[in-house]
Specification:
The chain is an all-alpha fold. Helix content is about 75%, strand content about 0%. It is built from 5 helices and no strands. Helix 2 packs across helix 3. The radius of gyration is 14 Å and the shape is elongated.
Amino acid sequence: MLSDWRNREGLSQAQAADVMNVSQQTYSTWERGVSYPRAAAELVVVLALGGFLAGAADEAIKHWRESQAA
């Protein structure tokens, strides 16, 4: 859940909204389950953000760079 992620990261709703590049009001409706991302781009941001915060994106980029150098 978004609120779990936000609390774990120690972010306010406004800060989480900034990370996702949406308004605080939009983020709040997502977190409360009132609405969900409508545009595919918004959904991609949300999914990518979860992976990024878990370190998956950093690891993937590092691995890709290492494979390109070989």
